[in-house]
Amino acid sequence: MRGYFAVGAEGLSKRMNLGTLMRSAHAFGASFFFTVDAEQKIRRAPKSDTSKSPGHLPTFDWDSVDTMDLPRGCQLVGIELTDESIDLPSFGHPLQAAYVLGPERGSLSPQMLERCDHVVKIPTKFCINVAMAGAIVMYDRHRAMGRYADRAVSSGAPTVERSKHVSGGPISRTGRIVPGN
């Protein structure tokens, strides 16, 4: 898998959604997890996080959009149903990304949307559960950024395997190929 990613949510209020989203982030290999303006009572992993993700990936709890401190070069990707949002199947995932989802019964705040580099929507008929939406986005990133064979044209497994990645030899600081390698 290339690059890194994080996932988080703004304004969460339900512990089960937090735990399920954290567990999915851990399963898909997130580099960190975060909340923004989450209710104090849910700022620790609930029992629905059976993988105990805080022991495996850093978790940040920011009080507001203004206090968010993402790594340099990390692009913020909002997941929100708006007319201007990019359909997830057409979206090119940034190499370094933090995906942020909105609260259970609401939307990303105007301040969060303003801060986003991209806004993406999952093409569904209506809003889905925040934890489910997060898992779909992480799966799409995994599928897009991983090295998988192209999908089969008909049902079943692909007929052509993806070739293995081959690294080049060492290169000196001057840009010349090092002899003997």
UniProtKB/TrEMBL annotation:
The keyword Methyltransferase is assigned to this record: yes
GO BP terms: methylation; RNA processing
Keywords: Methyltransferase, Transferase
Record has Transmembrane as a keyword: no
An example molecular function term from Gene Ontology annotations: RNA binding
Ranges where the tRNA/rRNA methyltransferase SpoU type domain occurs: 7-139
Spans annotated as Disordered: 159-181
Protein name: rRNA methylase
The species this protein was found in: Roseibium alexandrii (strain DSM 17067 / NCIMB 14079 / DFL-11) (Labrenzia alexandrii)
Lineage per the UniProt record: Bacteria, Pseudomonadati, Pseudomonadota, Alphaproteobacteria, Hyphomicrobiales
